[in-house]
Amino acid sequence: MQYDFLANWFEYLNDDCDYTRWSQYFIDGLARLKAGKRGLELGCGSGAFCRALAKEGYTMSGADISAPMLTKAVELAQSEGLNISFIQADARSFQVMEKYDFLLSPNDCYNYLPQSALKKAFARAAKALKKGGIFWFDVSSPCKLREKVADNIFADDREEVCYLSFNRLHSDCVEMDVTLFVKEQDGRFTRYDENHTQFIHEERELHTALEEAGFCVLAVEGHLGEDPTKSDRLNFICQRA
Fold this sequence. Notes:
The chain is α/β, with parallel strands linked by helices and 241 residues long. The protein has one domain (6-143, 200-240): Vaccinia Virus protein VP39 (Rossmann fold, 3-Layer(aba) Sandwich). The chain is 29% helix and 35% strand. The chain has seven helices and eleven strands. It has helices spanning 10-13, 19-32, 48-55, 67-79, 115-127, 142-149, 203-212, and strands at 38-42, 59-64, 85-88, 100-105, 129-140, 153-157, 161-169, 173-183, 189-199, 215-222, 233-240. A seven-stranded mixed beta sheet has the order 3-2-1-4-5-11-10, with helices on both faces. Strands 6-7-8-9 form a four-stranded antiparallel beta sheet. Strand 7 (161-169) and strand 8 (173-183) form a beta hairpin. 38% of the residues are buried.
């Protein structure tokens, strides 16, 4: 299962992505949009963005399909004294009891869904939002997946853990064979293997699926507001009709 073993190391291995600056990008944008204070992060992983927004006075909930990721999210939130509720949910089928002011889904959640599932997943997002609510998600760009990630090898060798990813391009996705070597207390390393698949989504296809699900696309931005034509990440900032 994806993230069964990577969950404990995800934020540690992604310490170069500058979560503080990335979170502030959302905080500033949500304030500018007057999005309200009650939010759900879908595909929350270990909860980095949930924690950052909660510290800024937002009432946050987090949802993810991975139970190990949610276990880590609860642990980290509790360690920082934050009251965040977490639920296990699939973006294609989740249901919530309340309506949120905004739904945030950063860091490739929808790249894990095939094109055929997008409309249904976006419809679920719409049902979770109040009328006029903000839906803000990102995807890795087609250029990034095809030209930078695919048919490449990534490695991160640290004292406690070694991360390897061997990536292959298919017609509509990139398959990633991930291996972790984790140092145990006795000094030996234990190997863990996972297989990840990220689907390539073209911008026009996302626009169509969003509109069919009842969203108006307010803007498309690159990472942290960059020019989307030059960015590895595309942010879709949408509003429920």
